[in-house]
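Aim 2 progress update. The chain analyzed this quarter is reproduced below.
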Amino acid sequence: MTRFGVFGLLLILVAGSPSWARDIYKYRAADGSILFTDQPRDRVGPEYTLLSVRKGWNYVPRGLTAAQRDRYDDVIARAARAHNVEAALVKAVIHAESLFNRLAVSRVGAQGLMQLMPETSRHLQVLDPFDADENIDGGTRFLAYLQGRFDDLDRVLAAYNAGEGNVRRYDGIPPFPETQAYVRKVKELRLRYQVQLAARSDQGDDTLAIR
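Predicted structure tokens:
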């Protein structure tokens, strides 16, 4: 069962996940906490009250031009330096989350390049999640926070996608197909962007086509 608790709500960032056709159910628990899950009413406990249902969707990746892929590199570099996070990792997360579309909005409400939920934006004091500078700075600070909480990249990425609580509950990547695929995708993109950014630094040019 895929569940996102109240803190997980701050962390869920889903628009860049692989093909996904699950409905997302929002419940309120007896203690007032909020639960997001892909399980319908008859699969959760009676202590949960159904609040809303968002229909699932299929995400189909599109091709990227070099200009689209690299247009935020200066912003990424500044945020990475400011928060001591690897630039290639930040770029990989943006690629996986929004495909570099600063106006992206997921069906569960995640916004902008790094797909911040509104609650996350408020927590990070991101006033305009569709502003590239603000969104990337906020998302990078979020990654820095998670790097301080977990000692390996798998857990950091899983927490970014599925919530810190779920990672601690399962002592690693949760058994959610979308989270497992997300971690693999971002790690693959990170390696490719490490090569791209290193080549640019060494040669002053980018000749790689990353899609």
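The two ends are 32 Å apart (CA to CA). Residues 1-21, 55-60, 206-211 have pLDDT under 50 and may be disordered. These observations will guide the mutagenesis experiments scheduled for the next reporting period.
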